[in-house]
Write a structure and sequence with these properties.
This is Protein NRT1/ PTR FAMILY 8.3. With 177 residues, this protein is mainly alpha-helical. The protein has one domain. The protein is built from 7 helices and 4 strands; from the N terminus they run H-H-H-E-E-E-H-H-E-H-H. The strands form 2 sheets. A two-stranded parallel ribbon has the order 1-4. Strands 2-3 form a two-stranded antiparallel ribbon. Strand 2 and strand 3 form a beta hairpin.
């Protein structure tokens, strides 16, 4: 019995390993996105937005996308695919990973615009914010929230269905090894 369970785990390992991609993108929320935001205009009216506080947009995005996913996207997908859950677990994870790529493209476009503006104003070597509003970062946070919803729902369903009965799925999803 243990040999069969090990075979199941070995077959699931490549799917588990794809989680590295979303984790690498997730790491950008607390690093690249914050650094990028620190070098942008963080004022809206008389209020100054701390760059790290924009990560709340990710949480708001997840809160937005979960019901949209459940009440809108899955029923539409169900009509096209004929599947009860709309998409397979692997399709959900793939869609989430694709959206995470779109998130990184959005961040790259904002950074390209920020750097071009810095160069045009002669501020490349200066440690001062560029006159580009931090609100330009909101789409990248919003996209990442959608990526999280698709990827993590797909992962949870996949591992709950495929893992051996005696295994703790939470351990599989969060094990660093």
């Amino acid at each position: 019995m243990q040999v069969e369970e090990l075979k199941i785990l070995i077959r699931m390992f490549p799917i588990w390993a794809t989680g590295i991609i979303i984790c690498a993108a997730y790491a950008q929320l607390g690093t690249l996105f914050v650094e990028q935001g620190m070098m942008m205009d963080r004022t809206i009216g008389s209020f100054s937005i701390p760059a790290a506080s924009l990560s709340a947009c990710d949480v708001i995005s997840v809160i937005f996308w979960v019901p949209v996913y459940d009440r809108v996207i899955v029923p539409i997908a169900r009509k096209f695919t004929g599947r009860e859950k709309g998409f397979t677990e692997l399709q959900r994870m793939g869609i989430g990973l694709f959206i995470s790529v779109l998130c990184m493209v959005s961040a790259a476009l904002v950074e390209m615009k920020r750097l071009a503006l810095a160069q045009a104003l002669g501020l490349v070597d200066e440690n001062v914010p560029i006159p580009l509003s931090i609100t330009w970062q909101i789409p990248q946070y919003f996209l990442f929230g959608a990526a999280e919803v698709f990827t993590f729902i797909g992962q949870l369903e996949f591992f709950y269905e495929q893992s051996p009965d005696g295994m703790c799925v939470a351990c599989l999803l969060h094990c660093p090894f």
